[in-house]
Design a protein that fits this description.
Helices cover 9% and strands 41% of the residues. It contains two helices and ten strands, in the order βββαββββββαβ. Strands 1, 2, 5, 6, 9 and 10 form a six-stranded antiparallel sheet that branches. The relative contact order is 0.28.
């Protein structure tokens, strides 16, 4: 399979929003979406949750700014521990990773960092397949 230049950092913002920073994807494959899975396995993404809009046809080079993705109404990140750039047509994982816990900052840090205190989970993912 051809590499798709997928990389970036995924951060869980709240129960139904994920932010992707420095996201790259060449946009050249069809039927590609972000997917959540219980674990970072092809089987979990195959039965996982499609989130966001179609990524196919749009190239991302990491300079577009953050990409915010809202989960479908009624769904939350509960039970999902991994994220993938997933091709539905070929059940292919173009890049994925597992969310890692990040300790909550102290109250003093929340004052200093402002809104950044809401980010509790983040994962760097890169094209590994």
């Amino acid at each position: 399979m051809e590499a798709r230049n997928v990389s970036g950092t995924a951060t869980i913002v709240d129960a139904d929003t994920i932010r992707f920073d420095d996201f790259t994807y060449d946009g050249r494959a069809s039927y590609v979406y972000f997917y959540l899975g219980a674990a970072d396995t092809d089987g979990d993404f195959t039965t996982g949750l499609r989130i966001g809009t179609l990524l196919s046809g749009t190239a991302f080079d990491g300079t577009q700014g953050p990409v915010f993705v809202d989960l479908p109404i009624g769904d939350t990140v509960d039970g999902y521990h991994a994220v993938s750039v997933w091709c539905e047509r070929f059940n292919a994982n173009f890049g994925s990773g597992t969310f890692l816990a990040v300790p909550e900052p102290t109250a003093l840090a929340l004052i200093a960092l402002g809104g950044l205190g809401m980010f509790f989970w983040r994962r760097r993912f890169a094209s590994i397949r």
